[in-house]
Amino acid sequence: MKRAKFLATAALAIGMVFVTVPSASAGGNSKTCNSTEYCRLTGSGFPGYTGHVDIDAIGGEHNALVHWVFQTDLRRCEGDVRIGDPASSWTCKNMSAPHPGNYTITVTSSYRYDRVKVGLRW
Q1: Window from 7-16, 56-65, 67-76 with minimum mean pLDDT
Q2: For the range 64-67, what are the long-range contacts, defined as Cβ-Cβ under 8 Å and sequence gap of 24 or more?
Q3: Distance, first Cα to last Cα, the chain
Q4: How far apart are CA 19 and CA 13, in angstroms?
């Protein structure tokens, strides 16, 4: 009987620890730019390490290349997508960011597009 009571108390204590431990924070920001060859998303609060960059370029020269750069104070991650491709997402790892976690994502193209959506998730 004492053992069952001990196990029940231990299970309750462990359960309370899991309830009080905060879960991983999710955050992010996004922006839509219209009729341009350049779009910049800036923000703060990025905790560092892993960020997910989302790009959707719509309209304009269908196969034109769009280049994006995700940059923190210490690291840089970049890639390309074509206008007309489905919305795409990239994972950038080891993106150290000192407090307050400032970041910039810049999207450029030699060709105009009707609209580009850019976002960062963490």
Answers
A1: 7-16
A2: 64/109, 64/110, 64/111, 64/113, 65/109, 65/110, 66/107, 66/108, 66/109, 66/113, 66/116, 67/107, 67/108, 67/109
A3: 48
A4: 10
Q: What is the largest CA-CA distance in the chain?
A: 76
Angle in degrees, CA 99, 104, 107, rounded to 5: 165
pLDDT at 15: 39
- Could you tell me the two tokens for 30? 């996004």
- Please name the amino acid found at residue 5: K
Structure tokens at 100: 């307050």
pTM higher than 0.90: no
Token pair of 3, please?
């053992």
pLDDT exceeds 60 at position 29: yes
